[in-house]
Amino acid sequence: MSETPAKHFRLGLWLPLALFAAIVALVAWGLLHPPSRDIPSRFVGHPLPAFDLPAGSDDRPGLGTADFAGKPRLLNVFASWCIPCAAEAPQLEQLRAAGADIYGVAVRDQKADLAGFLARNGNPYARIGRDDRSVVQLAIGSSGVPETYVIDAQGVIRYQHIGDIRPEDVSLILGKLQEAAQ
Questions:
Q1: Domain region containing 124
Q2: Is the Cα torsion angle 44, 46, 51, 54 positive or negative in sign?
Q3: Per-residue pLDDT of the chain (182 residues; tens, 9 = 90+)
Q4: Whether residue 102 is found in the same domain as residue 153
Q5: Is 130 a member of any domain?
Q6: Which of 31, 60, 74, 173 is 20 to 30 A from 37 in CA distance terms?
Q7: Model's pTM, two decimal places?
Q8: Does the residue 106 lie in any domain?
Q9: 24 shares its domain with 58
């Protein structure tokens, strides 16, 4: 009978160490196998909702659903007050230079602020619509700015890129634009 307390004592020493090892193993596995960063959109595969936005800039026309017919285009949701939107400006220019038609939806913005933003960061947009109450932004499933969509020639959303476009994302987006052309 004297062995039973000794066994409990040894088990009491090893149990915390075993629990600690299990936790370390779980953390290590999580670091080596992170979850996907892709957020599936329920709007991909669906047509753009009907909209008609006024011009957000004096030198570009407004934007409506009908403007997406004919060929694939990028739809970039942005704002002049958005710091990541300014950070992605060089990549948008790179996409434009590679032949992408880019249409913009300026969210909750004023024309004067938008003009200053475009003067500082460049204007890769063929059209800019002003979405003063985020109606279009929410209707296409955008939860923030910036977000970029690939829209095919029939006006169907084919891809959604959440967040700013970084240099390493340019080739992916160009590839998605080419896929939308087929």
A1: 52-180
A2: positive
A3: 455 666 666 767 778 888 889 999 988 888 887 665 556 678 999 999 999 999 999 999 999 999 999 999 999 999 999 999 999 999 999 999 999 999 999 999 999 999 999 999 999 999 999 999 999 999 999 989 999 999 999 999 999 999 999 999 999 999 999 999 98
A4: yes
A5: yes
A6: 74
A7: 0.80
A8: yes
A9: no
